[in-house]
Every structure is written in structure tokens, then in C-alpha cells.
Write a structure and sequence with these properties.
The chain has 415 residues and is an alpha/beta fold. It folds into three domains: 53 residues; 119 residues, no CATH class; 184 residues, P-loop containing nucleotide triphosphate hydrolases (Rossmann fold, 3-Layer(aba) Sandwich), CATH 3.40.50.300. The chain is built from 15 helices and eleven strands. The strands form two sheets. Strands 6-5-7-4-8-9-10-11 form an eight-stranded mixed sheet, with helices on both faces. The longest helix is centred in the middle third of the chain and has 33 residues. Bound molecules: guanosine-5'-diphosphate and magnesium ion. The site of magnesium ion has 5 residues, from α9.
Length: 415
Amino acid sequence: MTINKYQGRTEEEAIRIAKEQLGEDAVIMNVKQIKSKGLFHFLKDSAYEVTAAVEEKEQMTKPSSLAIHDNINFTADEEIKIPLKVPEKEMRKETNHQADALKRESQNHLEERIENLQNFLEKQLAPAEPQVDKASLKREEKSKKETKEQAEGIKFLKMIYGIMLENEISEKYANAILEDIEKVVRNGSSVDYILSSIYQKMILKFGQPKPIELGEKKPKVVFFIGPTGVGKTTTIAKVASKFKLEDGKTVAFLSADTYRIAAAEQLKTYANILDTPFSIVYSPEEINEAIEKTSDCDLILVDTAGFSHKNMEQKDDIKKLIDSVDKKYAKEVFLVVSATTKYKDLVNIADVYHDIADYKLIFTKLDETSAYGNLLNIRLYSGADLSYTTNGQNVPDDIELFHTQKIVKQLLGGK
Ligand SMILES: Nc1nc2c(ncn2[C@@H]2O[C@H](COP(=O)(O)OP(=O)(O)O)[C@@H](O)[C@H]2O)c(=O)[nH]1
Ligand SMILES: [Mg+2]
């Protein structure tokens, strides 16, 4: 992993410089405004500083190979403060819930690791040979202080682990994150430092969100696939409004959801409101003709029908539809899933839709859940890039680019 800071006159400029240096996959971890100091500070522009990082691919899949403590040059001025929901005094003792969560974990190797750490601590605390000289007394004091910090660190780690499980991060991924942090705790780092390390680790795991990008070539054809009722049609309307109303782009709609009459009608209503071309595609053979009709548009958004996991025929239809698009058109596929869906079902969905196409992820209905763990679980399970989240029924307002810092803070117990 490489972490560096970059400055620019604007936030955008600093991010652009970071990406030029670290590549497109660079993840922006922190943005801060820096005010010039000194007597003539008012003559200078205030500037922006971004902290950006890249992680090599093999480190993503083999988290234990990463020694975060060795790699991060973390200075005191950019400590990441996460306002924990848990009151300060609670941080000192384990809550019943966390104890329960840990009990459930009795066989998993977190226990084992904590035990290892505790053994390590006991050894450190074992009565030392009687010391006489001043230097060794000092050393002993220092080592006791370090051991106390390590004990605090372990307690804190247990608490964070409890919060992660409470937010429904799967045990497997919570363990993987803590495994990387273990070394930081062993080194007797402060609780703040441990928290910052976990925060950074998680930001990297989410990766840089990838929105719809319009290239030189027109049109860009974008498919929205996913189970019924997750919010595909609503999300299309939100995306279309953003591009059309905010960026002044031309947008067209195609509906391939012909299983329900009302489904196509719903998109047509949005087409009327937004004054965008709309047509229905009844079979894969018709898709290129339909695209051709609006090929002068910047963006063509294609709505599809959700299907039950067991309906292979419908699944094949969507695959055929996507595969039929002429090579001359740039295309992209977004899998729309609801943040309220159970982890087990999401895993199934991620698999079934992977047979159809490579996709980026859109999470809907964040407003209907307070546990965002599945966002991380499915990102890590599928390896797919994240794009947008939606958090309500309002078109066009309730959509945003995946806000990694905000989500990670929430996953760590922030507000
Ligand atoms: N609470 C909430 N409801 C949403 C969100 N996105 C869509 N919906 C609602 O979910 C329902 C199904 O949406 P729809 O777009 O028809 O889903 P589709 O079947 O996947 O096309 C509608 O009532 C939407 O208003 C969201 O982000 N939050
Ligand atoms: Mg729909």
C-alpha cells in the first residue's frame, strides 16, 4: 500500500494530482482545507490537501500480508476522529452485546488471536528478575506502560469488533480487517491510532467509487439489472435527472421490462416528466434498432425486469439482451441491490447476476436500514466496484455517489 498527500488550489485539483501520481484506482481517504499561516496569509489562496492511497491487488485478497503500521506515515495533525455512538465510559468495559457477539465467536480465530495477545501480555507482566540499577528500573516502568497500552488496545479492538458485527459486517470480513490491525495493537499504539488504522483499512477495502462516465463516444448504453422491487426504475429516473438537469446531457430511456405492463408505464411517466425519448424493447433482436433511434443522445438508460433466482429463462433473456448490443456502442452494467436484503440472499444475487455480466454496484434503500455491513460484505464478496447509493423515494434528490468516508464512519459506530 502507498499513502501520500497531495495539494491543490481546489479539492478537484488536489484529487486530480493524486490520481495522476497514484493512478485511477487511488482512493481518497481524507480531504482537508489548509489555511496559509504567517503574517501575509491573507495574500495566499487557501489550498486543499488530500490523503490518497493505492493498494496492490494481491494485498486486497491477502489482507494478512499487509503491515499497515509499517506503511502509514500518520501525523498527529490528521488524526481521524470518529464520533463513536458508544459513550466514553463504555469504551472501557465490554458491553453485554459485545460479550455476546464474542461468545458466538467462540470457535473462530479472533478468540485465538486475542488469546495469543493475552499470553503475550502475561509474559510481559511476569515478575522480572530483581532489578537494582536505575536504568533497568526505568526500562521496567516503560515496558509496564507499553503493556498497559496494549491491554487498552485489545479492549478497544474487542469493542470495535462488536460494533462491526452489530452493523452486520460478516465475521469473515471483520476478522480479516482486525487481523491486519493486530500488529498495531501489539506495538502498543494509542486507541486513536488503532481507530485510524482500521478506518484507513476499511476505506481501502471499499475502493474508489466509479460513477457513470461519459466518454468521447456517443451514446453510452447503461443497463440496470437486479431483483424486482429494489428500485431500478426509480434509480434510472434519478440518474437521468442528474445528467440532464445538472450536467445538461441528453438522455433516453429504453424499457425491456415487458413482464408487467405497469413496469414500462412507470418509466414512461418519468420520460414524460423529464422530456426524454422512450421506447420499449420486446426482444434482444430489437435492442440495436432502439439504440440507433436515439444514438445522438449522450446516455441511454435501459431498464430490465427483475427475476426470481430460479427463473433461468428470464435470466438468459437479460444476458442475451446485454450481449446483443453492437460492439460499436460503449456499454456498462449496474447491479441494483437493496441494502435491506439479507446477506445470504445478496450473496446469491451477486452470483446469479455475475453470470449475466460484469457489473458495478448500486445500493438502494439506505434509508431503510441502519446496518450498512452488507455494503462492505458484498463489495468484498463480488469484487465489483461501487458506484451510487440511494436513500429515499424522492426523484432526483435521493441519490449520491458512494460516500466511502461517511459509510466507514457509520460502520465504526460514528453518527
Ligand atoms: N425507501 C426507499 N425506497 C426506494 C428507494 N429506491 C426506490 N424505492 C422504492 O422502492 C419501490 C420499488 O421501486 P422500483 O424503482 O419500482 O423498483 P424496480 O422493481 O427495481 O424497478 C418504489 O416504491 C420506490 O419508490 C430508496 O432508496 N429508498
Ligand atoms: Mg422497475
